[in-house]
Amino acid sequence: NPTVTAVEQAVAALEGARFGRAFGSGMAAISAVLYTLLEPGDEVLLLGPLYGGTEALFSEELPRLGVTSRHVSGDELEAGLAAGARMIYAETPTNPTLAIHDLEQIGRLARQHGALSVVDNTFATPWLTQPITLGIDIVLHSATKYISGHGDAMGGVAVGPAELMQRVRMEGLRHMGGSLGRTESHLLLRGLKTLSLRMERQCHNTRVLAEHLAKHDLVENVYWPGLKSHPGHETAARQMRDFGAMLSVELRGGREAAELFLDNLRLFVQAVSLGDVCSLATHPASTTHQLVDPAERGRLGVSEALVRLSVGIEDEQDLLADVDQALAAVAARLPAAAL
Length: 339
Known about the structure:
The protein is an alpha/beta fold.
């Protein structure tokens, strides 16, 4: 379909890639790439944490086909590749703890050992980061998020070199059938037209919120790579134009505090998605990562007290007022001992 082709060409151009393939959802794109390029006996090194659906794909579905995976740190990559790993898979930044991985290191080590590097760039978008230009082989997007930008279209995109993308089209797309529709394609093209404008405003609003929340007594931790206290701040500054519009906060008071905070937000909409022009909030442990084993969630830092915020284009003072009144409601409802 020519409209689908236009989406593929547009995202590939924004990412600095040669070719793109569009799908009906982000998970359709991820599944098509992995099922096409991995063989029984292959091992994948995961730099996480990853989106819960991706985690489940690696832990539950791919092992049935003889593909294994394991989470590693950046320091463990070279040893894993030397032992024969076929692929490195990462997110940038990660969902939902906003960890930052060094894309140049990933690409360089993968090339040295003849492995593939695959990066999910949904959180950053090509406006903030272009992994292909940093040496990554394949870049993935849930286009439902920032590429659409308006919460009204689902889609996914994979971009990369011609030979790999042709294989993904003929095997992962044609055989698995996760096709993108023409109407959704039109909406994604519309969203791309305002991507830079939206990201500028959303990144600004996120900085304001992150710096404000970091000073609040009820907030244990703020995860946003723009804060100098973030362990990946320097790497993010090197490979990102700005630090993104996603942030997560860990509240004092555990899950009860997180639930009270979410239920008292008025401007933020409780929704599992992200990247919309309106601000969204969710509880990852019970939504995006509910399929992940609780012990594994804990290891990945997805605690019961964690709330993920996708910051929109609203007035910054309205956003600040909303989180403040929600935090005040938490303080009023929970005993001091719980906080």
